[in-house]
Structure formats: structure tokens, C-alpha cells
User: Fold this.
Amino acid sequence: MVRNVFDSVASKYDLMNDAMSLGIHRLWKDDFVSSLKPGRRGPMKCIDVAGGTGDIALRILDYARETYADRETSVAVVDINGQMLKEGYRRFKKTMYHNTPQVSFHEGNAQELSKETFPDNTFDLYTIAFGIRNCTSIPMVLQEAHRVLKPGGTFACLEFSKVTNPLLGSLYDQYSFSVIPLLGTILAGDRESYQYLVESIRRFPSQPEFARMIQDAGFSTGGLFEGKGGAWRDLWGGVACIHTGVKL
Amino acid sequence: MASPPLLRAACALVPTHGFTRRALALSALSLPQPHEQPLSDTAINALFGEGDDARRTLADAWLENAREEVRGRFQGRAQVPRVNEVLEARLEANEPVLRHLPEAFALLASPTYPLPPLDPRPGLKHAFKVADDACRIAGEATIGTDWYVRRGTLAAIYAAAELHQLTSPTTAYAFLDTLLAASATAKSSLDDVGTFANYIARSWAGIVRSSGVF
Assistant:
């Protein structure tokens, strides 16, 4: 199902993201990456799962290079969907990172990453942005994340979540159930895929539930509350949310 | 909360490293299964908050730890301790980190937003929690308004003694005792005033009633 949905939207994925979120997803992604500060204390080995079009990978590499003059940080981009990876590959060809050890593309399932390519205790940073809700089994994804991270490595997830403010919540519901499928029909000619996107957001566990799932996978997190020193940070009142955990 | 072992380990490092992100980073080296390297900045951000927020988390954890230490010290004692002893024990717990404490309190009092310039709430909360703990350990059974008055007084006294301790550690205990004694005297005088006022009021009420006006 997920494969089909993303196969059908791959070419217009970025355009649609911009249209649906009115460009806000770029702010969220910038915020997400800058909060992780990749490259602050020397080069990091990062893995970006479900990162087909390379949005996060590119931001990580740019951030490390521009802020800390770090050209050694590397990102392995993993996606289940070949079409999306191709888009990402094409995009990276336009950048200076093409054909360098800084970036690599792998087709793989987040729930069972191959042990040869991704051995245990390898990465310093695991990112997954707007991807985990499309996986069949979230606990399995988290376990794999825990496996490939080094002790002291960080798991960071950017995902749509539950809006906490009821007023904003009803506006957001209106928008996502009427405008988004319509935009899907007009811009991509594919209503069902976008209907699926909206519904998958509603099915995703709430912030505290997801934080507990992260803890159950063996990660340490901050306290079970929103904000500073907490396990998650809401963006735009919970439309999206950044969850973090550390493997100890 | 999933990171108390780390925070506990970090609290043990406060006397040498202060309330710094470095202390938090090094805490991973003293876990039951020690890491080879200190925690990365990314990991500290993820667990304890960004920038100075991580230090605030550490300062809060240290204060909580100190209270726990005092509770543990008096637990299982046959004789119920007096409030003085409990507050003195709490001041003693400050001693190993005394030179870092002003910084910690400054950090807690500095707000994350530009306004207001000073946030007194964390300090008040800290003093009140210490006072509350002291009352509970000393088994004080006050209720109603007395409950608040007693805790409020003790919190003010403790806060004053702690401030005194920051500048003059050796005389802080005597200062605490003086304050507690003074507050006891003040309380008994206030009680006397209350009794007297009550007596006068009742007499007047009696006179008015017997005068036949109502």
C-alpha cells in the first residue's frame, strides 16, 4: 500500500508538500535539523530513514558545513521506495555532495534494515521525518533504530501529531479533510493517495503514547511532557512534533 | 522519566564540574555500563533540553537530589527530628557545591524570554518545597491557614539562611537558629495579640447586645 502510494506521488512529492503545508514543512525541517546540531562536536555518522527525496539529508550536510565547516559528516539515506530514492539521487547530483562519501542511498525497509549494510552500533544520529507513521509496525522500526545506533547515539523523529489546542484542532481538521484531498486531485490527479496521507496522520499515536513507545524500545528520553527537557517538542501547537531519544 | 540514572550521575559530578553541560556529558562515563565517550551535544539536547535549558534541568535535579538526601537521612529514626535539625541538614547538603550554587540560582531565576527580567518563581518553589519537606519530616500536623502560614514562614527563613550561607557559610547555622527562635517568639506574641483582640471583641459584642439597641 505505502509503496504504491509513494510510487504514484514520487515525482510530485515536493511540489505537493509545499502546496499542502503552504511551505511550512520547510520551516519544520530546518528547525528539526538545527535542533540536532549535526557536526557540532566533530563529524557524525547519520542515517536518514524514509528520507527518499533527501530533504533532511541535505539539510544535515548543509548545516554541518555552513555552521561548523564540517565536511566529514555523512548521511546514509534509506527508503523503501526506489522512485523516491531516484528523486533524491537526482537532487543530490545538483549539489556538491554528489559522488562523495558524505552521502549514500540505500533501498531498504525501516523495520528490518540489512545487517550487512547497517551493522549494530554504527550511527551517531538516526533521523526519520514524516516517515514512521507509514510503517506497518512502529515498535519494529524503533527497535531497528536502537540496534543501528551507537551507545550515546540520538534518535530523532519529526512527524505529524495531535493538535492540543481545540480551536486550532478544528481548523486543522477542516483543512486536512477538505482542502488536502482536493489539492491532491488538482495538482497530482490522485485523490486517494492524499486521502490516505490525511488518515494516516489521524491514526498515529499521540505525543505521550509515542514517547512511551520510544522508551519501550530501550531509548532514554526526557520527562513525559512537552517542551524543554521533555521527551517531545510540539511545532505549531502539535500539528507536527519532534520526538527525541538517546540510546544509553 | 527515563533518565534519572544519568541525572544522578551528573549530580555527583556537580562539585567538580559545576552545573554545566560538561557534567551532563561526563555522566555517561559513570553509568553502570559506562560509555567510552562522553555524551554528544545532540544527545544532551535530546535528553535535557537545548543550551541553558539542559543546565536548568541539572540544577532542578540537583535540588531534588538534595531534598531526597535529607529525607533519607532522617528516615527510620526512632526520634522525630525538630524542624531546626532538618533545615540544618539541608543547608549542610549545600556545602559540597556551595561555590556553584549562586550560578545555579541565577540560572534558575533568569527567564527564557526577555520579560520579566527576573523570574522569582523557581526560587520560591525551591524554598517552599524545602519547608514542606521539613514540616513533613518533623511530623507537624498543622491544618487550615496554619498549614500555609507555617510553611510560608519556614520557606522565608530557609531562603534567608541559604542566601546568608552563600556569602558566609560558617555562620549560616547560627543565623538559621536565630531566625527560627525569632519567628517562634513572634508567633507566640501574635497568638497573644489574637487572644486579646478576641477577648476585646467579645466584650464589645456583649456590651452592644446588652444595651438593647438590636
